[in-house]
């Protein structure tokens, strides 16, 4: 139906026959037109949302194996007593390989062996220049 976007099943599907009743034919045409307009409006809204989302999207940084990168500590648990006293970035660590489209593997020291070495590209991994010039 038009308001829910679903077509309920009745257990059997009636055949589409031309009715001799003009009112029924008019209602059918009106509902068909309303459904087509709703589909067009939904497609237009989807395109608009994608366009506005992509305007503010930044591309993931590209690294080569051997590059030195810093690791953002916002989601890493440490033994520090307060987040205020925690370093903003750890590293630099050596970039090993790209695991997925937005996932990178780092070579971590033994003291950080409790962490999984694969991290999300944005915003956890930063280039060294971005750390020094962040203010």
From TrEMBL:
It comes from the Eukaryota. Pfam families: SH3_Tf2-1. Residues 66-120 form the Tf2-1-like SH3-like domain. This is Retrotransposable element tf2 155 kDa protein. The lineage of its organism: Eukaryota, Fungi, Dikarya, Basidiomycota, Agaricomycotina.
């Amino acid at each position: 139906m038009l308001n829910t976007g679903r077509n309920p099943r009745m257990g059997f599907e009636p055949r589409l026959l031309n009715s001799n009743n003009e009112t029924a034919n008019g209602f059918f045409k009106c509902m068909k037109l309303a459904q087509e307009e709703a589909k067009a409006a939904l497609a237009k809204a989807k395109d608009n949302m994608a366009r506005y989302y992509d305007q503010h999207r930044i591309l993931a940084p590209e690294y080569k194996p051997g590059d030195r990168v810093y690791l953002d500590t916002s989601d890493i648990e440490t033994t520090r007593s307060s987040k205020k006293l925690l370093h903003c970035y750890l590293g630099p660590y050596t970039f090993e390989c790209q695991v997925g489209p937005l996932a990178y593997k780092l070579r971590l020291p033994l003291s950080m062996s409790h962490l999984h070495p694969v991290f999300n590209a944005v915003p956890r991994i930063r280039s060294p220049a971005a750390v020094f010039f962040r203010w």
